[in-house]
Amino acid sequence: MAMKTRDFYYDLPPELIAQKPLKNRSDSRMMVLKKDEQTWNHDEFIHIGQYLRPGDTLVFNDTKVSPVRIFGHRPDKDESIEVLLLRETLPKSWICLVKPGRKLSVGTSIIFSEELRGVVSEILPDGERVIDLAYDGILYEILDKIGYMPLPPYISETLEDRDRYQTIYAKYRGSSAAPTAGLHFTEEILDQLKNIGINTAFATLHIGLGTFRPVKVENIEEHPMHEEWFSLTEENAKIINDTRKNGGRVIAVGTTSARTLESIAQKAGEIVAMDGDTSIFIFPGYEFKAIDGLLTNFHLPESTLIMMISALAGKEFVMNAYADAVDKRYRFFSLGDSMLII
Question: Which fold has domain 5-65+161-341?
Fold first, then answer.
């Protein structure tokens, strides 16, 4: 019998949705789920090393969020137009979310700044626009001057320090959202983990805003999963494979790292160097092939992400843990507290 989207609903008081990052990255709480024992306990993120073993490997997503939320106007109008650059499909041609969409027909020109202009060249079936950009120089340098971080729709407050929506190890530009499980890490914690024998590996998955899109179908298997680009190098594939050979655990930092590794294992039958696109949808019944554990944040009700962690730890177990997290007043979603599943 197919699982229903409503099976993954939980009641979340709005005041538990974190609107601002904590003063210090590593000050978050951490709920620890032991999937084999089906038990959990409450701790602080700074103690994560106590739950790891020498020889374990943490796999981080080193994607970098760019300030791709930009504002412009039509040449003959003062009304503000909001554009979110999602993905470059051809040189200087981007798939975008736009607001208000009704004002942006094919052929509409948009002025963003003296350095950046655009023309709508196509309207896609789901309402997204293809915008051809015109600029000289390097686009990301222009965006650094005029753009804003593309915060999730449930965050209503302005982020004063854009670096707080960026992991400290972010390297490759291309994401429309941060791999938020990694926001808790500091250089000090990474050093502490290295000193106790924890390995680190890096994958890249550029996160699209499809990660925030709700599941609108009743039967979850009918949900069309969004596509995202990923990459894993030979060096990092070797670290992960050596971990397994030596009896260590592979623990993904974030659902995006998990998606990358599981996509590769699904395509190749093992962890190998690979890049490409993935639309993998992980929900209960899925048999994990690449990861043994997961560090993540708390996810939206009825989202594909809560379905993924339910596949890893068990649906009833996860939903009961979430109910306790609500009761214990954890901070939820992108800027909130963490959950370690081992």
Answer: QueA-like (3.40.1780)
